[in-house]
Amino acid sequence: LLSWLAARRQARRITRPIEELQAAANAIAGGDYARPVAIDSDDEIGRVASDVRRHVARGKIAYRRARQGR
User: Considering the entire predicted model, what is its pTM?
Assistant: First the structure.
């Protein structure tokens, strides 16, 4: 039982950030650029989250420029 609980906890540590990243990506795809990508880790998921934040920032800049007619 104890090992099952430890395995379940470890699985949640892995899946929770993936679920958060998926929810943020879906919100962004729906036009919600204000949705934060609140994952800050040094693993692969953290690097993907960082890339998503960078692309959102660039998208916001491009959107503002397009609205200003540049």
Answer: 0.72
